[in-house]
Amino acid sequence: MLEYTGSGPAAAQSPLSSLFQTAAILRIGTGLVLMMRYGISAVEHAYQFFWNEQPWAWVPAFHEAGMPYAHLLAPFVAILIVGVALSWVLGFLTRLFAFLFLPVVITTLVVLQNAGSPRVEAAWLYLIITVTLLLFGSGSVSVDQLFRLGQGGRKKHRL
Questions:
Q1: Would residue 120 count as lying in a domain?
Q2: What's this model's pTM, rounded to 2 decimal places?
Q3: I need a labelling partner for 86 at 20 to 30 A (CA). Which of 75, 102, 109, 141 fits?
């Protein structure tokens, strides 16, 4: 894309236009859906499971899928989902949290595929979005960009 011609600086872009030119819409939208659809209810159920000793559907499902320590793994995954969703909404350490979320979404995809669940499509979409955010980062409208995180310490030299 041609930003400017000649030796003059590029024209100032509005923050709204840079929001739509990056992965920010994908990152924020996915983070909000992940938080609202899975994260909040998972953390509430994990809390009730640990402190009030109420049954939780994730624990037997993890156990049936052959995962070790299902009673510890299920609450850990619930907390990780909330952390990933919050990270993606804010754009803070997006690539790190996408990397941490990758094993969760791959395992979910394999388990759902073997069970013949209709939620396999959602798992594929989360996998594609996770890989996209892992490769491209948070975009220009994020906490990462604000503090220049993940740019490898490159300095811009002015002539």
A1: yes
A2: 0.78
A3: 109
DSSP state of 36: I
Please indicate, yes or no, if residue 10 is contained in any of the structural domains: no
| Number of separate domains in the chain | 1
- Count of Cβ atoms closer than 10 Å to residue 67 Cβ: 15
Is position 128 within any domain?
yes
Q: Are 81 and 42 in contact (CB under 8 A)?
A: yes
Q: Which residues fall within 8 angstroms of residue 106, CB to CB, at 6 or more apart?
A: 127
Identify the DSSP state of 159. -
With b for 16 or more beta-carbon neighbours within 10 A and e for fewer, the 111-133 pattern comes to bbeeeeeeebebbeebbebbeeb
Distance of alpha carbon 126 from alpha carbon 121, whole angstroms: 9
| Alpha-carbon dihedral sign for residues 71, 72, 75, 77 | negative
Place of tokens 């938080």: 35
Q: Is residue 73 part of a domain?
A: yes
Phi, psi of 18 (to 5 degrees): -70, -25
For the beta carbon of residue 140, count every other beta carbon within 10 angstroms.
Answer: 17
